[in-house]
Amino acid sequence: MKLVGVGWVAILCGMCLHSPVWAGDFWHRCYIDARRMNSWPDPFRMVDREAARAPFEVMKDAGWRLENTLVDALFTDEQELTRAGKIKIRHILTQVPLHRRTIYVLEGETTEITEKRVDTVQRVVADMVPDGQLPPVLVTQVVPRGGAGEYLNLVNRKYRESIPPPVLPEPEGSGDSGGN
């Protein structure tokens, strides 16, 4: 057994003497491989974290798109913004985080209607933001879920009425202990 170990050492030493470039690469690769094996799985954790977070980023983007969408009810028949539409734009320009300040306009029945809506929104945004970079105004086909205010108010009231009133639990040992 000792002869086999001595034989390998002799072969490796002979290779190193005859080809120093190969020997340097060999030991360098051994060093790299050992460092990689000892640091595993740390180099790959960030990739896994990004893969786990990616669906949530898509959901957040979709949520902000729905929140920043100007729907049909915010435009008049002439495709001008209503007062509520201007208030919504002001909210987007002042309250929404900077990287989420994209205004989405719901696509109209025709391309002319859609173009008028986008022009109107761009004019209003330019009036509200006289200096600096204007936020992008994009067209979307995704209709935010909503309903009539009267219906939503009714649902909210029914929900509140269904909540039982808070009741404190009976105190333990509520009987009179006959103290002073």
Features:
6 helices, about 180 residues, mainly alpha
Fold and architecture overview:
This protein has helices at 2-18, 20-39, 42-67, 83-95, 111-128, 149-162, and strands at residues 69-70, 103-106, 137-140. By secondary structure, it is mainly α. Strands 1-2-3 form a three-stranded parallel β-sheet. α1 crosses α2. The protein starts with a helix and ends in an 18-residue tail after the last helix.
Structure class = mainly alpha
The outline comes out as flat
Portion in beta strands: 5-15%
User: Which sheet architecture does the biggest sheet show?
Assistant: 3 strands, parallel
**Average pLDDT taken over every residue:** 86
Summed up:
With 180 residues, the protein is mainly alpha-helical. It is built from six helices and three strands, in the order αααβαβαβα. It has a three-stranded parallel beta sheet.
Give the helix/strand layout.
Elements: H1 2-18, H2 20-39, H3 42-67, E1 69-70, H4 83-95, E2 103-106, H5 111-128, E3 137-140, H6 149-162
Parallel strand pairs: 1-2, 2-3
